[in-house]
Amino acid sequence: xSDEYASSVDYRAFFDHAPGLFLVLTPELRIVAVTNEYLAAxxxxxxxxxxxxxxxxxxxNPDDKxxxxxxxLRASLARVLATGAPDTMxxxxxxxxxxxxxxxxxxxxxxxxxxxxxxxxVRFVIxxxxxxxDLVRAAELGDELRGRTSDMERExxxxxxxxxxxxxxxxxxxxxxxxxxxxxxxxxxNISHEFRTPLTLMLGPLEDAQASPxxxxxxxxxxxxxxxxxxxxRLVNSLLDFARLEAGQLKVAFEPVDISxxxxxxxxxxxxxxxxxxxxxxxxxxxxxxxVYVDPTLWExxxxxxxxxxxxxxxEGRIRVALRWHDxxxxxxxxxxxxxxxxxxxPRIFERFHxxxxxxxxxxxxxxxxxxxxxxxxxxxxxxxxxxxxxxxGSTFFVSLPTGNAHLPAERVSSRVSAxxxxxxxxxxx
Length: 430
Ligand code: ADP
Known about the structure:
Elements: H1 2-8, H2 11-16, E1 21-25, E2 31-34, H3 36-42, H4 46-49, H5 54-57, H6 69-83, E3 87-88, E4 92-97, E5 103-116, E6 122-131, H7 133-211, H8 219-246, E7 255-257, H9 259-276, E8 280-284, E9 292-294, H10 296-312, E10 318-326, E11 329-336, H11 370-380, E12 384-390, E13 394-402
Helix pairs in contact: 7-8, 9-10, 10-11
The protein binds adenosine-5'-diphosphate (ADP).
């Protein structure tokens, strides 16, 4: 019965329909059998390839110089023919020509198995391939996706880092705003006090005078009213300066000035007020080799602010004003033997509205804008201001300005010296 079946079995048809990609080759590498699946995968027709040499049918893609699938297959088949042993090849990249003549890329995992005669000679070689194109593509896609995912991860990390630093900057800005807000409230407190004190000191003598029979001010009361009116004027002027500066509306005109004579004059205006308190005033402003480009009105404000602070915070000893020429720079120093400034406050001393709480000063006058104004004005001149100070020993403020005018905006520089009202050295300050 089995014989009967065996004689009627069409092995050729079985082979043609076998589920897989198979070719059968003669030892000369001619194709003698091929499965339908192989034909479909290579887009060839059985009658077009049977009896032909495998490498005539499947040559390397001449446009792809790196194609080595054919030579690898040739070497593998040669090994099988020589050894009579099966040979499994690594995954090969083939350019398989389709029915339209165009090459398509296929990844095949081929195995060549010999079919031996009883004597052990190779009669046929069964060439079997597994199409792993989809697998390779999926792996490539996986790699690409992995690459893209890690790119995205990197991007997300970078963005979140940027976000964190923006948040930090925002928090910092917020803290600064809150501090400024606090300082501003303190400023308004101070300023009301600053206005009220001289007004009270003026109203007292004025009301006394009104109530007196001759309705006249006594001479010491007259001086007091005058002094306090001047104090109010100074206060209003410095507030206006500050507001203008903040609004960028301060008009600045630089001109060549003999700041040695100017500074000595400004210091001399202070002499009366300083010496009246028993403090010694040293002025060391030797003639300088060249005029210095400053705005004379602003230079005056710088010097007077530093001097009045020195006087305000010094109860004994001396105040010294000095000018030194260092070729590229000129340096003003105003030093005192006053209360000094603690290390804690030093870094913030030039911030607007910053005052040292509880600092004992000669007068209670103060708004916390004097040094901020000095700082801004010196910066406008392209210079720097710094302070050396030790509590209980004293403070020295240094203002350093570049010499020449190359550092200043040309449109604000004039070579002419402006006509200023003549100054009398006898007028006392304050
Ligand atoms: P204020 O109107 O309060 O004087 P400033 O801006 O001029 O404002 O000064 C700010 C603070 O710096 C002062 O309140 C004081 O505490 C401190 N300060 C300034 N100059 C001196 C100085 N020469 N000696 C000691 N402390 C000073």
